[in-house]
Amino acid sequence: MQKAFSLMIFVFALFLIVSYAYAADFCVSTATEFQSALDVAEGNGEDDVIQIVQGTYEGNFVYSSYAANSLKIKGGYDSGCAAQTLDPANTILDGGEIDNVLALVVYDELAADFSVEGLTVQNGGIYIRTAGDLVYSNNNQLSGSFEVKNRNINLNNSSFSNSACNITAHENISEICNIFDDSSVIIAASNSYLYDNIFQNYDGIIMYSLNILSNSVYFLKNIFRNNKHISIITGDKLVLKSNEFLNNTNTYSGPGGISYKFMAGALLVQCNISCIVDSNIFLGNISKCTFCSNASGCITVGFGGALNIYGQSETAYAILKNNVISSNKSFAFGGGIYSNVKTNLINNTISNNIATHSGGGIYLIIRTENYPYPEIYNNIIQNNVAEQGADIYINNIDNTDPYFPVIYPVEIFYNDFDQSAEGFYAESPIDIDPSNLDNVDPLFVDPENGDYRLSADSPCINVGDNNAPGLPKTDIVGNARVFDGIVDLGAYEYGSSPVAKSTPKPVYQFYSPGLQAHFWTIDEAEANNLKKNGTAYWTYEFIAWYAYDEDDYPEGSKPVYRFWLQGLGEHFYTMDEAEKDYIIANYPASFQTFEGIAYYAYPKETKPADSIPVYRLWLGFLGSHHFTINAGEKDSLVANYPTARYEGIAWYVLKE
After folding, report:
1. CA-CA distances (angstroms) from residue 238 to 123, 318, 321, 554, 578?
2. CA distance 609 to 605
3. In the prediction, which pLDDT does 117 show?
4. Nearest in space to 270 (alpha carbons), one of 217, 195, 327
5. φ, ψ dihedrals at 631, nearest 5°
6. How far is 351 from 348, CA to CA, in rounded Å?
7. Judging by DSSP bridges, how do beta strands 223-225 and 198-200 pair with one another?
8. Which of 32, 290, 422, 482 has its CA 20 to 30 A from that of 106?
C-alpha cells in the first residue's frame, strides 16, 4: 500500500494523471457556423473536433477558453462531413487583412492540446497583445494572423499565406507537411519537432521568417527559400538534418543596436548546449545588414552568409557534418559559416562562398570555453573568396591581457583548402599537417549548377581519415561512408550505395511477482542473463514488440528512456524529453536512477504505416505502470479494475 500511495504522488507531480472528457464533433460549412462551434467548444468541458467543409471562410476566428480540453480543427470535408480529402488548398480561412485569421488561446497555463490540419490560413493582419504566458526573446508582444497558446500543438498538412504565426506550447509542438508562404512564424515550447515544412517568400517588417525558442529542437527535411530575413533557432539541444536553405537574404536596414548574431544570411543557431547540423544544403544565401546613425553614417555588415552559430553558454558546442555550403555571401565575416562556439567540422563541402572582409569559407572564434578545441577533418573548403583567410579564418588568440595573450590550438587534418597566406589565416600561426591537400581542385561533377558530388577522377577520393572524430555512418544522401576502404573528403562519398535499412530487434518482456511490475529490454545479452540468472526474481514472458537499438535506428525515430525508480520498485519508460528531464531534475538519486536509452521507437509524427501503438497504463492495484500493444488487454484492464487508468499512446513500434 505504501508503494502505491507513493507512486500516485509521483505520478501526479509528473502530470501523468489523465482526466477524461467526452468528445463533441462539429460539422461546419459557413463562417458563422465555424465561430459558433468555437464558442460552444470554449465552455462545453469536452474534447472537441471541428470538421470544416471544403470552401473559403472569411473572418477573424477566436477560441479563448479557461478549460483544459483539447481541440482539433480539421479541414477538407465533403458536405455532411462523411469523408475528408486532406489538401490545404480546398479549405481556406481568410482574415481579410483585418485581424487574426485564427486565434486559439488557453489561459492560466492549462494543460490542453491543439491540432490543426488541412487548412490554408491567409491574409491576417498583425496586432499587438500582452496576454500570454511566455516571454519571447527581444519581443514579448508580437502576434498576428494565426495564434496558438497551449500544452501540445500539432499542425499537419496546412498552408499559411501572408500571415504572422505565433505558436506557443508549454510542452510540445510538431509541424508536419505545412507551407508557410510570405509568413512569419514564432514557435515556443519545451520541445519542437518540424518535419517536411516549407517556409518561403517572407518579406515582412520583422527580421525573421521563423523564430523557434525551445529546449529541444528536431528540424528535419524542411525547405527555406527566397526569404528576406533570417531564421532563428534557439534551444539547449538542436538537431538540424536534411534541410535546404536556398536563396535567403538578410537585408535588415535600420538603426544600430542589434547584436551581430542577428546578421546571418539564412540561419542563426543560438546554441545553449549542443547543436548538430547534419546533411543540410545552404545555397545562395546573403547576409547584408545596413545600420545608420546621424553621428557615423551607414555601415554594411554580415556575420555568416549561410549560418551563424552563436553560443548561449560557455560550454556550448556544434558539430557540422555532411553539409554542402556553397555560393553564399557575407558583407563582412564568414561567407559560409561564422561561429563563436566550439565547432567540429567533419566531411563538409564548403565552396564558392564570399566574405567581403575575412573568412570566405569559415570564420571560427576559439576561446578557453571552447575546450576541447575544434576538430576539422575530411572537409573540402575550397575556392572561397575573402580579403583575409579566403577559405579559413581562425581567431585563436585572446588579447584580453596584452602582455600575456592566450593562444588556442585547433586540429586540422585531412582537408582540402588553400594553405597560402591568402587562403588560410590564423591570428596566432598554426602548423598545417601534411595530411591536408593544398588547394587541389576537387573536380566536382557540376558545381555551377549546384552538383558537388565528386567525379571519378577527383583527388579527394580515398584520402580522408577513417578515424576522424564523429565520422558519420552515411554521406549527405544516405550512402555508406568509407567506400573502397578509405573515406572521401567532402559531403559525398564517391561510388557508394545507400546503407541497408535499419533492422528492428525484439524487445523482451519480463514480469516480477515480487515487485508486481514488468520490465522490457532490447539488449539480448541482458535478456539472456535474466533468463539464466534472474529466475528467482524475473519471469520471461514473450517478445513484446520490435524496435531499434542505439547502433542502428532509422531517421524519424526517437529514443525511449529508461529509469529505475528504486523508491517505487519499478522500471519506468518515456519518450517525452520534458518528462525525462523533470524526473531527473526534481527527484533525488536515492529515488530514481536514469539508465539511459532503452531503445528507439517512433513518435506519432513520423510513424510508418506498418507501425502499431504502445499503450501506457497506470495500474493502481499493482502500483506500477504497464505498456502493451494489445488493445484488448488495455480495454480489459480499464474495464475490470477501477484503479487501472489508460494514459494514452506512449510511442509506436513494429509488431514483427
Report:
1. 32, 9, 14, 18, 15
2. 11
3. 83
4. 217
5. -65, -35
6. 10
7. parallel
8. 32
Query: By the 8 A CB rule, do 516 and 600 touch?
Result: no
For the chain, the first-to-last Cα distance in angstroms comes to 38
CA distances from 543 to 519, 522, 546, 560 (A): 12, 10, 8, 17
Residue 108 has what pLDDT?
Answer: 60
Is the pLDDT at 404 greater than 70, yes or no? yes
Give yes or no for residue 233 having a pLDDT over 70: yes
Cα angle value 102/108/114 (rounded, 5°): 40
491: CB partners within 8 A, 6+ apart: 279, 322, 323, 324, 347, 348, 349, 380, 452, 475, 476
Q: Give residues with Cβ within 8 angstroms of 274, minimum separation 6.
A: 236, 237, 238, 316, 317, 318, 319
DSSP-H helix ranges across 534-595: 577-586
* Three-class secondary structure of residue 554 per DSSP: coil
Mode of pairing for the β-strands spanning 558-565 and 593-601: antiparallel
Q: Is pLDDT above 60 for 136?
A: no
Distance CA 69, CA 113 (A): 7
Q: Which three cell numbers stand for residue 623?
A: 502500483
CA dihedral 420, 424, 429, 433 (to 10 degrees): -80
- Please give the mean pLDDT across all residues of the chain: 83
> What cell does 250 get?
538578410
In 3D, which of 612, 655, 617 has the Cα closest to residue 636? 617
pLDDT digits (tens, 9 = 90+) for 21-75: 345 799 999 999 999 999 999 988 888 999 999 999 999 898 888 887 888 899 9
Q: Hey, which bits of 353-436 come out as E strands?
A: 354-355, 362-365, 375-377, 380-382, 392-395, 397-398, 406-407, 411-413, 416-417, 424-426
- 416 confidence band (pLDDT: 50, 70, 90): very high
Which among 213, 436, 480 has a CA at the least distance from the CA of 345?
Answer: 436
Residue pair 290/314 in contact (Cβ under 8 Å)? The answer is: no
Task: For residue 370, report the phi and psi dihedrals to the nearest 5 degrees.
Answer: -80, 5
